[in-house]
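Lab channel / #folding
Pinned by the channel admin:
"Please post every new chain as: sequence first, then the structure tokens as a reply. Keep commentary short and put observations after the output so the thread stays searchable."

First post following the new format, from NK:
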Amino acid sequence: MAAGLEFRDLRSEIGGFAIRTSFEAPSGSVTAILGASGAGKSTLLALACGFEQPASGQILVDGRPVTGLPPAERPISILFQEHNLFPHLTAFQNIGLGLDPGLRLTPQQRNDVADALDRVGLGGMQQRLPKDLSGGERQRVAIARALVMRRPVLLLDEPFAGLGPALRRDMLDLVDALCRDTGMTVVMVTHDPADARRIAGFTAFMHEGTVRTFGPTETVLGRPDSLDLRSYLGVETDT
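Reply from TO:
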């Protein structure tokens, strides 16, 4: 299932904001993208998914260009802060949408949905509506939906930002475990360096539409190599 996600000489102008960057999230890794609000993090994920189109450059999954493909045909799934569950559908049905928008599921697909519920710790809750689930449980349903789609790349656009510290750590640990179990590549946008330190093997720092620093998390955060990154992290600069 593993497949790396590469942005190669990507150039984009969206609403007067410019993206100019190249970097690759390694196959089977969790990669965090850090940066201040307005740095271009969410825009980069929108380009990866096909919700926005670059002016030039390539987006590749497992070395194969996906730039010209519509969002539904890209081997990429995405989870937003808003979990996008349908309130009138059960947890089981919301997950099943990832397999068939008409919910005409085969016996094997129904088994896959049940297995995904178990993997995210929601076994026995398949008939609950979103209103009967906690915020963390609703996000687990959204993660389960991404799991059944079996796409090798999962993008997380701050999906746990509204959760309390303990639940946020639980959700990060769940993503980390699923990444290890399935081999999927995870790219996670976050404002919090603690998220990166907890589960990301690699970290990219984005500033003004460009990935300025990329490497192992312990190196990027432990030995920040630029004034912009040091300022973002609140590290005192030499005088």
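NK: Strands lie at 5-14, 17-25, 30-34, 56-61, 64-65, 76-80, 153-157, 185-189, 202-207, 210-216.
TO: also worth noting, DSSP finds eight helices and ten strands in the chain.
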